[in-house]
Every structure is written in C-alpha cells, then in structure tokens.
Amino acid sequence: NAGVTQTPKFQVLKTGQSMTLQCAQDMNHEYMSWYRQDPGMGLRLIHYSVGAGITDQGEVPNGYNVSRSTTEDFPLRLLSAAPSQTSVYFCASSYSTGTGKMTEAFFGQGTRLTVV
Amino acid sequence: DQQVKQNSPSLSVQEGRISILNCDYTNSMFDYFLWYKKYPAEGPTFLISISSIKDKNEDGRFTVFLNKSAKHLSLHIVPSQPGDSAVYFCAARNGGGADGLTFGKGTHLIIQP
To answer: Chain B partners of A107 at a C-beta cutoff of 8 Å?
Structure first.
C-alpha cells in the first residue's frame, strides 16, 4: 500500500510563478487536507475536502486553490508564488467513523517548497 | 490565538525513564485528541488518540491522559527508547468532526543514552 503520495518532494519557484503540488491516496478515504509547516510552528490547515466535489478553506487559505474531482486526488495550486509561501507542505487523508467524523489523519512525506 | 499549546519546545529524558509530554487546549468544542510523531524529512505519523468521553488510553508503551476540566492532556512513554527521539505534535479535532485538525507547535523529545 502506497498510502498518501506527494509529488514533487522538493521544488524551487521564482516569485510570481504558479505550480501544482500533487497528492494521491489509495486508501479510499473520504477526507483529504493540506497543511503547511513553518519553522517553530505546528501544522496549519490550508484547505480540506470531505469528498469528491466538496472543498473548504482552512486556517491559511490565501494564495492557494484546491479541487477534488476524484476520491484519490487532491492537488494544491499556488496561483502566484510569494516568498511567504516557502514552507513544507503536507497532504493528509482520513476515513470517517459511523458518525461521519474523521479519524486519525495519514500524512504524506511532504513537499519542501522554496520561493525565491 | 493558539488553540492547542505545547509549552515545552524540547525535552531531554534518559533512556529507560518515563517521558511526559504536555498539551493544553482552549477550545471547548474539541472532542478528539491525537498525538503524532515526526522524524526529520518525513511526514507526521499517528501515535495514539483519545476521545473526550475518556480520560485514559493505552497502547503498549504509550499512554495518553485527558483532563477535560483543566483542558489538558499528556502523553507518557514508558520506558523511553532511543528511537523515540523525534518531534511530538499534539492535535485536536473540533466537534464538527470533518474540518481538519488543529496542531500544537510540537515538542522535540531527545532520549539520552
């Protein structure tokens, strides 16, 4: 089982460039989410999805777009990269209990992004 | 305003002794708490969780305690082993249950031989 797969692992962008961080999971989980981790900070939620076709904003959504056309994939798009978006990005997926609440999240290995 | 707080950035413990990591929260709507372990250059790995209706959950060497009235939880690792050296994150899910997790800043646990 691959679990949650993120690509690329590393990326350097110039200010103003756009790019898409890919995330795929093979566990048939309904919930997927994107977090960023900055030095000395915990993980902060960017966007999340509770199923195909449904997305919503997290704590720090500005400058990012997401879509969820399939259960497996949840790409994160940087529209116009800024140095403040230099960070490590983690994608996660989770399944729900019978009550519809998500359980523990399974994380990918992360994408280290540098914007110069 | 930080809703999940880990006030100790680092903790050093001797191998074989008990490690106690602490976490405080402010949001009364949190109903499920989790601990994650993270090694450098890897994603966080789920360790153990506890529902707000319980006050203790055990899994092998790991025990999580929850004190709802104090809005405090702790992770106990007994005995501590060298492979436990990592950053530990406390996380919480709000009562809605579907909109992600709120994380603390993490505690770097160092196990001394």
So the answer is: 36, 43-45
